[in-house]
């Protein structure tokens, strides 16, 4: 039995991530464009991707859902959620390059937000590189509000980077 339930949306099924998803997710985790704004460099081998996915499978302090299309169990990306304080969660997401631009990230993240607010979360937040226009746009379309900028917050494979904090409160969410 999984640690947390699957989530169904109009087109998608989000289910607990499995180590067997590593091969499908390697398309995202090894892609320099996808990983440019990530806090770590692209994976250079499937073995590195498997090790990274294993952390998401085994970690007990967060939930990581593989994004799949209904009727097809092939992982297209993931949404993960970490409880930072009681009823306060940080969300993150990634998609394989082949499915970007189809609204999959918005639908998947919305599904997770719906579930978490229904289950009692009061706040969900994300941190994003200020130059990651696609992710900033997604968060803003979903109703997240810019709450602040942390200067030189992350040391990443592309250098020391600022981060923007976006937050969404349950009472602000429009499913």
TrEMBL record:
Q: Which SUPFAM superfamilies match?
A: Acyl-CoA N-acyltransferases (Nat)
Q: Which InterPro entries match?
A: Acyl_CoA_acyltransferase (IPR016181), GNAT_dom (IPR000182), N-acetyltransferase (IPR051531)
| Domain N-acetyltransferase: residue ranges | 12-171
Pfam family for this entry, one:
Acetyltransf_3
Q: State one molecular function term (GO).
A: acyltransferase activity, transferring groups other than amino-acyl groups
Q: Which residues cross the membrane?
A: none
Q: Which domain of life is it from?
A: Bacteria
What is the recorded name of this protein? N-acetyltransferase domain-containing protein
């Amino acid at each position: 039995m999984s640690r947390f339930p699957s989530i169904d949306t109009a087109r998608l099924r989000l289910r607990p991530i499995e180590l067997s998803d590593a091969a499908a997710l390697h398309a995202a985790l090894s892609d320099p464009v996808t990983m440019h704004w990530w806090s770590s460099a692209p994976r250079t081998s499937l073995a590195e991707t498997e090790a990274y996915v294993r952390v998401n499978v085994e970690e007990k302090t967060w939930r990581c859902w593989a994004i799949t299309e209904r009727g097809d169990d092939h992982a297209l990306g993931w949404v993960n959620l970490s409880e930072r304080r009681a009823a306060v969660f940080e969300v993150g997401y990634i998609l394989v390059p082949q499915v970007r631009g189809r609204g999959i990230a918005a639908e998947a993240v919305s599904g997770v937000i719906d579930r978490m607010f229904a289950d009692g979360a009061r706040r969900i937040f994300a941190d994003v590189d200020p130059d990651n226009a696609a992710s900033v746009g997604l968060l803003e379309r979903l109703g997240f509000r810019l709450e602040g900028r942390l200067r030189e917050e992350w040391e990443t494979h592309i250098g020391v980077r600022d981060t923007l904090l976006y937050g969404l409160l349950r009472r602000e969410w429009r499913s």
